[in-house]
Amino acid sequence: MIGLNDPYTASHIEEVAELVQSIAAAMGLPDEDIERLALAGFLHDIGKQAIPSSILSKPSALTDEEFALVKTHVAIGVQLLEYANVSPEIIRIVSEHHERLDGSGYPLGLKGEQISLSGQILGIADVISAITSKRTYRLAANRKETIALLNDSCPDQFSPAVVEAAIKCL
Ligand SMILES: [Fe+2]
Ligand SMILES: [Fe+2]
Hints:
Elements lengths: L1 H4 L1 H20 L4 H13 L9 H4 L7 H8 L1 H11 L4 H8 L21 H15 L11 H10 L7 H10 L1
Helix pairs in contact: 2-3, 2-8, 2-10, 3-7, 3-8, 6-7, 7-8
Bound molecules: fe (ii) ion (FE2) (2 copies).
């Protein structure tokens, strides 16, 4: 279903589900956490199903209104997953994937330890998948550029341990 509405998101969620497992394994997290993260990776953008595909695949920059609409995919995803009786642990990870340690993320602007380690891992995997994919409005970042960007995101957006593990996995 995701592939029909938005082919980019379909390949993105597979990539993210792979990446979160590698990062979590590199950090030595238990299998239980790795399995939860894999599922959260597949489900994290499910709320985008409620966003018109004309906005999701818009070749140019989004307007403020369009971006505000795209941001609602987190709350919509959480609602869908609650309705589907997905475990609260997985829903929490999904709900945190756009939050950042310095409070600059969305939807709640959570800060520091309010964001779970798994939420951070999903967040950084999401960023890596996004910047290393070629979109109509920009080129894909190469490995060196990706590492530089991840280092820049540390420690304001992601903790040093998460960034270090993510770079190890690239
Ligand atoms: Fe997202
Ligand atoms: Fe995503």
